[in-house]
Amino acid sequence: MSYIPGMLLQGIDWLILFLFFALSLGIGVYSSRKSSENVQEFFKAGGNLPWWVLGISMVATTFSTDTPNLVTDIVRKNGISGNWVWWSFLLTGMLTVFFFARLWKRSGVLTDIEFYELRYSGRPASFLRGFRALYLGIFFNVVIISGVSLAAIKIGGVLLGLNPLPVLLISGFVTVLYSSLGGLRGVVFTDFLQFGLSLAGAIAAAWVSVNHPAVGGLDQLIQHPEIIDKLNFIPDINHWELFLAVFLIPVFVQWWSVWYPGSEPGGGGFIVQRMLAAKNENHALSSIMLFTIVHYAIRPWPWILVALCSILVFPNMESLQEAFPNADAAIVQDDMAYPAMLSFMPVGIMGLVVTSLVAAYMSTLSTMLNLGSSYVVNDFYQRFIRPDASQKHLIAIGRLTTVGIMVVGGYVALHLENALQTFDILLQIGAGTGLIYILRWYWWRINALSELVAMAASFFAALYFTFLHEVYFEPLPNAMELIGGILFTTGSWVLTAYLTRATDKEVLIAFVQKTKAPGPGWERIYGFLKNNGKKVDARPLFDFQAALLAFAAGITAVYAFLFGTGSILFGNLGSGLLLLLLAAVASGALFLLKKRLL
């Protein structure tokens, strides 16, 4: 098969795509009046949104264009079990549900960066807030935006016959326009539309792929010699390096020790932004629970099926390059097999699938643009440059920042090659910082300097392994680099926490009085309050034992549903039904435990 530019989409397909653009812009325009009132409305939607809207918005954001490409890359290289590199983050999500959601909502901050001056004291806290605002708001957002934009470039090249620059100009323009007009409210409600389209498109793509002549249906797929070895849910322990890299390290180390956008230990980024926009603490908890269930239990299988089919249709890089000779050779990698499989969609379904991918791209892009803008405006510009700026002026700066972040992210996207490359870069940069984001809510000794050291240590470790290590030593597997970064970073910030001055006691007292932060790590502060005749509410914010049980039940329910569904898909009816029964029992336990936590 040869690639024919501009011939894959027909009239009805283009109509579906343009109608989606029009609806997205309409939502942005409709939301613009309310969002233009003040920064609370523009970046937080007034803090009054229901859990189900926020939960679906989180799912839509992580339903980005590069995610199916990433999954395809993983499956083609390491089989289904390779997905543990991101399945392991389910533990992070459940931890956030039961141990952090209510704390974040109770904090009352506008962004998770503002938290730093609520929790820490002095110049280190102010510097951390300002530096982190620019570091995450610009640098990290640019990396994320470039990753999802790279996927859009590949899809635009394969399905629309467009060069990279026009793809970025068209999709970026529409996204920037409705994001800057509607603020978070416009982003969230557009996400709701985009999630439905994205899920429908993914299912349609899987259906057509499984029925491709080279595949011959689901039964033929799972019995094919090239596929059988890729169907394991757990990596083969006999392949020790792979077992260590994609299962042991992610499940036992990575989920709590690595900071990754959307899976931050303790919550962060757009996850916290959505929880802060919830009506109350209960809505905040329920929103992150809905996101965690749908993200891990429902979405993966359509992507995995397409990835497996692609192995039979495009078995190597040469077949991909031969099929799409006009595509830039530099971007023809395993992750390109997903958009390549979409070239077989029939008229009408092609329009739905392409629109679903555009929707996924725009959802992630709009969220990251709004989040990055909120950091720059609230935590840097207003805090340090113009503290007396009017609300109208701040919103204008927010809109200008939105455009600027998009321009830089698009430029970087033109110099990347594959989705897994971006994933590995982000993991390495965040290696070792995760534990500090968990403990800062539960241990008074964590201070601003320890966070700064953790951030600097992880960044320099990433630079070392990326650019210097191989100059002097033999190259290490990615897993070993990750462990090295975690050990160096964790050791650095723990020593800093013990050897430097603690946060001012007045700040710690104000923090626990506002948030009712629980746990033995605060006994010293609560003891000081009692000894000095201060009134202390002795009731814990939540039942720790119930939270631990709910954490375990949630993990069991989601994994059991995920693998039960997969077992049934691959013909193992008995084990699949048993796993679904386990998921139902765990869900029942979770429902009962959740009542003790609200």
Structural summary, described in words:
This protein is mostly helical and 598 residues long. 74% of the residues lie in helices and 0% in strands. It is built from 28 helices and no strands. The protein has helices at 11-35, 39-44, 51-62, 66-78, 84-87, 90-99, 101-107, 115-119, 122-160, 164-210, 218-223, 225-228, 240-257, 269-276, 281-298, 300-313, 317-323, 337-341, 349-385, 391-413, 419-429, 434-439, 448-472, 478-499, 505-515, 523-531, 544-569, 573-597. The longest helix has 47 residues, at 164-210. The chain is globular. The N and C termini lie far apart (57 Å).
Keywords:
598 residues, mainly alpha, 28 helices, disordered N terminus
Largest sheet: none
Q: Which overall shape is indicated by the principal axes computed on the Cα atoms?
A: globular
**Number of alpha- plus pi-helical segments:** 28
Strand content: under 5%
Distance between the termini: 57 Å
Q: What is the β-strand count?
A: 0
Name the structural class.
Answer: mainly alpha
What radius of gyration results from the CA coordinates?
24 Å
Chain-averaged pLDDT: 85
* Helical content class: over 70%
Residue stretches low in confidence (pLDDT < 50, at least 5 long) are 1-7
Give, in order, the helices and strands. Answer: HHHHHHHHHHHHHHHHHHHHHHHHHHHH
